[in-house]
Write a structure and sequence with these properties.
Blueprint: H1 3-12, E1 18-21, H2 27-39, E2 43-47, H3 60-76, E3 78-79, E4 85-91, E5 94-101, E6 110-111, E7 117-120, E8 123-126, H4 129-138, H5 159-170, H6 181-187, E9 191-192, E10 195-196, H7 198-204, H8 208-211, E11 217-222, E12 232-238, H9 242-256, E13 259-260, E14 271-272, H10 276-289, E15 298-302, E16 306-312, H11 321-325, H12 334-343, H13 352-359, E17 363-368, E18 373-379
Parallel strand pairs: 1-2, 11-15
Antiparallel strand pairs: 2-5, 3-6, 4-5, 7-8, 9-10, 11-12, 13-14, 15-16, 16-18, 17-18
Length: 387
């Protein structure tokens, strides 16, 4: 950075990407600042700048000591280690040091004392348990669908349905496997010791919402185009397993969408204004790839001019809307992903959104990082005829 760029930063003041420090003498304090930047979007620490923006000249001894401290802290007091860059800049004959911390690619980071921090404006704060789980998930260190659902047991599972699906997938009965049912379920990550995993509950649970009440679909067909509207044509809370939610969501959409006559015969069956493949692919995508660390339902809204499918959780890792349009994907819930290919119209190779988009280009996708939400918007073909 040059002198003008630094002066511009100082003039703008501290924020979530810029921190002023007159000097730093505590390695633990420096570690906390660097951890907070690494867990957020990265940033710069300007050492030799007071809180009011006044520049205080650092001595050569200060600079040597600070460089050594940054090196030791980044290697020994932050887990996993990071690689900050340091630069000494002279402004009006006064020396300051800029420590640049990149956005972490191995989140979450913590101090060697086990403290997890992130930025909150110009300050830092401890990361909540829920946020920490999401960070571990985003870094593929843990998966929500593999986590135990405490208080559940094999009694909460529809074992008859599981045995039927198992036999169809593996071409042998559960009894022929020579393992106990519980051991088999543990091997398949549908149980963890005595408890069902979230995947086991959502795929084969008798009543999944008895344990996870918000893991369902809330569907509403509104009059008009305003999500704040109070009048609706139809509404339903769709519960059950992943398969039951998929069938219920598809049924809700098809009964509330118009049908278009595509053949000359009066008695010919109309086709849905939105192709079935679009409905199927986007519903499956929402159910399999949503973030199950967020305790919120999938929302399915039908308006006069569009359909919206809102999934809890932004796109994971480095995925973007443009990338998913080309068929790139990341398995956020690998156990659900694996079984979904056997029980749903789902291939599990990342091409669902690509197929939906090619079949019906009037689709937009919004990846809302701030609200931690992914939205698919499907524009309706005709809006001039009432349902």
């Amino acid at each position: 950075m040059n002198e003008i760029e630094i002066l511009n930063l100082i003039e703008l003041g501290e924020d979530s990407k810029t921190q002023f420090k007159e000097n730093i003498h505590s390695p633990d304090s420096l570690a906390q600042e660097m951890v907070a930047f690494s867990n957020a979007s990265g940033g710069k620490i300007l050492i030799g700048v007071q809180d009011d923006g006044k520049i205080k000249d650092l001595t050569m001894k200060d600079i040597q000591r600070l460089n050594q401290m940054v090196s030791n802290v980044s290697s020994n007091k932050i887990e996993p280690p990071i690689n900050p860059l340091t630069e000494t800049i002279k402004i009006n004959k006064k020396k300051i040091m800029v420590v640049e911390i990149k956005k972490g690619i191995n989140k979450p980071y913590c101090t060697n004392k086990g403290i997890y921090l992130t930025k909150a404006g110009a300050d830092k704060r401890k990361i909540s348990q829920e946020e920490l789980q999401r960070l571990f998930q985003d870094s593929n260190k843990i998966y929500a669908d593999e986590m135990s659902v405490m208080g559940t047991s094999i009694k909460d599972m529809d074992t008859i349905n599981f045995k039927r699906v198992y036999e169809r997938i593996y071409q042998e009965s559960v009894e022929e496997n020579n393992l106990s049912l519980q051991q088999l379920l543990n091997n398949l990550d549908l149980m963890s010791d005595e408890n069902l995993t979230l995947a086991g509950l959502l795929l084969f649970g008798e009543k999944p919402q008895a344990r996870r009440p918000l893991f369902m679909i809330k569907a509403v067909s509104f009059f008009g185009n305003d999500p704040a509207g109070t009048e609706y044509r139809d509404e339903e809370e769709i519960r059950g397993t992943i398969l039951e939610q998929y069938k219920g969501g598809k049924s809700f959409l098809l009964r509330n969408l118009k049908k278009i006559q595509t053949k000359p015969s009066f008695n010919s069956e109309g086709t849905p204004e939105i192709p079935k493949i679009v409905i199927e692919e986007l519903l499956v995508n929402a159910l399999i790839h949503r973030n199950y660390y967020i305790n919120s339902p999938i929302r399915l809204f039908i308006f006069d001019n569009r359909v919206e499918i809102l999934s809890p959780g932004k796109l994971p890792n480095t995925l973007t809307v443009e990338k998913i349009k080309y068929g790139l994907s990341v398995a956020r819930n690998p156990v659900l992903n694996s079984f979904a290919a056997k029980i749903l119209p789902y291939r599990g190779i990342g091409t669902g959104i690509l197929r939906a988009y090619k079949a019906f280009p009037d689709i937009e996708f919004e990846n809302n990082v701030e609200m931690d939400q992914f939205k698919a918007i499907i524009y309706r073909v005709r809006t001039d005829v009432n349902i």
